[in-house]
């Protein structure tokens, strides 16, 4: 069995893989982008994940490669695969997390439900889509967006001209994506894990609340998600995982519509913010599950430990102060709250930690989690 996992990228997702690696007795090594990142504790090197030589040299020190993010270029991933390095998820799957246009095409090809969408290359095409969709739509860049950057609501055919210009200047050309503006009731996320040998397990579907394009709160399981919604979400994620051959954790971000449908918004092929609740709230955390999956070990039980688990992101953190400066007050007032700090400096809008509370009554769990998280504002 491979016993040294190499993680490319030193962010908080890599950081949160460290405790389960220690518990499993598996060695974890991290290639961080700059010194002192969130996963510094397991960093064995600093380097550019876009540089083939750097990544190949790192891969030589580990048995399997996985990721903190989805940005490693395809040519680097393919060179690793050609050199015989196990890469999970592999380039053929990661492609659909790297490029939203390819993702939309694939989801449609798999017969799974998306918002109405089109690839557009100019203002005329955007105008035609707007005309057919009530005058408003969402435009997205295919690559490079995260946390709502690269996503824009437009009501004017010229509303994406700057992005068309940037694409043309980039020399690579290509298209933007336009989607119907979904009037969703709420956003959901469905996580599954898949091993290279094919085993798949699913977590309960969760509700995610976004503020300004950034995940703010997660409620697990999603309240009032009847069995039809839960089953639909699960089926979609399993079909995506099998359809694109994901290995490791997959998160499918979903919209629940007023008429009870579930539409695919986005894919993430790594542990995901919507699954941080699993650290304290599920029998097997998404981070342990990811390690098991990339090592092709039998997957763990996904069952929640309590009826309800609420995870609240700490966005920004206390201005000019560390998270730790609030520990004494927060821990005294909220002994059931579990605080996870990412070792990052406070900065407006930045994800610097999260709080999780689990229990039997949703109202009190939510209130406790929100009040505890508020002490870190
Ligand atoms: P990112 O990759 O930056 O996370 P997403 O594609 O997930 O971008 O979009 C960010 C947020 O924008 C979503 O969580 C959702 O709130 C909103 N959004 C995205 N697409 C649509 C859509 N077609 N209709 C309505 N809202 C959308």
Automatic annotation (TrEMBL):
HAMAP family assigned to the protein according to its UniProt record, in alphabetical order: PurK
The protein's name in its UniProt record: N5-carboxyaminoimidazole ribonucleotide synthase
Binding site for ATP: 100, 140, 179-182, 187, 265-266
A Pfam family: ATP-grasp
Protein EC: 6.3.4.18
Function, in words: Catalyzes the ATP-dependent conversion of 5-aminoimidazole ribonucleotide (AIR) and HCO(3)- to N5-carboxyaminoimidazole ribonucleotide (N5-CAIR).
Catalytic EC class: ligase
Pathways involved: Purine metabolism; IMP biosynthesis via de novo pathway; 5-amino-1-(5-phospho-D-ribosyl)imidazole-4-carboxylate from 5-amino-1-(5-phospho-D-ribosyl)imidazole (N5-CAIR route): step 1/2
Domain ATP-grasp residue range list: 104-295
Self-association and partners: Homodimer.
Keyword Nucleotide-binding: yes
Keywords: ATP-binding, Ligase, Nucleotide-binding, Purine biosynthesis
A single MF term (Gene Ontology): 5-(carboxyamino)imidazole ribonucleotide synthase activity
Reaction catalyzed: 5-amino-1-(5-phospho-beta-D-ribosyl)imidazole + hydrogencarbonate + ATP = 5-carboxyamino-1-(5-phospho-D-ribosyl)imidazole + ADP + phosphate + 2 H(+)
Protein family per UniProt: Belongs to the PurK/PurT family.
């Amino acid at each position: 069995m491979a016993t040294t996992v190499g993680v490319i990228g030193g962010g908080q997702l890599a950081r949160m893989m460290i405790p389960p690696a220690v518990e499993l007795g598996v060695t974890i090594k991290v290639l961080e982008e700059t010194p002192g990142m969130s996963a510094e504790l397991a960093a064995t090197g600093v380097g550019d994940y876009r540089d083939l030589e750097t990544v190949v040299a790192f891969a030589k020190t580990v048995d399997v490669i996985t990721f903190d993010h989805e940005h490693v270029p395809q040519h680097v991933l393919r060179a690793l695969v050609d050199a015989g390095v196990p890469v999970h998820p592999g380039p053929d799957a990661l492609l659909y997390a790297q490029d939203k246009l390819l993702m939309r095409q694939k989801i449609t090809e798999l017969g799974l439900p998306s918002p109405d969408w089109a690839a557009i290359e100019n203002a005329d095409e955007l105008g035609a889509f707007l005309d057919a969709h009530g005058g408003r739509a969402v435009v997205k860049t295919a690559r490079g967006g995260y946390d709502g950057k690269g996503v824009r609501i437009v009501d004017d055919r010229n509303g994406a001209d700057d992005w068309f210009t940037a694409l043309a200047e980039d020399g690579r050309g290509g298209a933007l994506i336009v989607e119907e503006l979904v009037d969703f009731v709420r956003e959901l996320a469905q996580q599954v894990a898949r091993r290279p040998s094919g085993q798949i397990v699913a977590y309960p579907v969760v509700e995610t609340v976004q503020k300004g394009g950034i995940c703010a709160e997660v409620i697990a399981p999603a309240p009032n998600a009847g069995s039809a919604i839960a089953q639909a979400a699960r089926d979609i994620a399993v079909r995506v995982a099998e359809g694109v051959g994901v290995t490791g954790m997959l998160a499918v971000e979903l919209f629940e519509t007023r008429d009870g449908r579930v539409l695919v918004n986005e894919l993430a092929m790594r542990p995901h913010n919507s699954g941080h609740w699993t650290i304290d709230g599920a029998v097997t955390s998404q981070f342990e599950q990811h390690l098991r999956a990339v090592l092709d070990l039998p997957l763990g039980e996904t069952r929640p430990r309590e009826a309800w688990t609420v995870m609240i992101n700490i966005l920004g953190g206390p201005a000019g102060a560390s998270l730790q400066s609030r520990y004494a007050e927060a821990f005294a007032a909220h002994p059931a709250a579990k605080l996870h700090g990412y070792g990052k400096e406070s900065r407006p809008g930045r994800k610097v930690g999260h709080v999780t509370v689990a229990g039997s009554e949703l109202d009190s769990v939510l209130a406790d989690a929100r009040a505890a998280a508020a002490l870190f504002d």
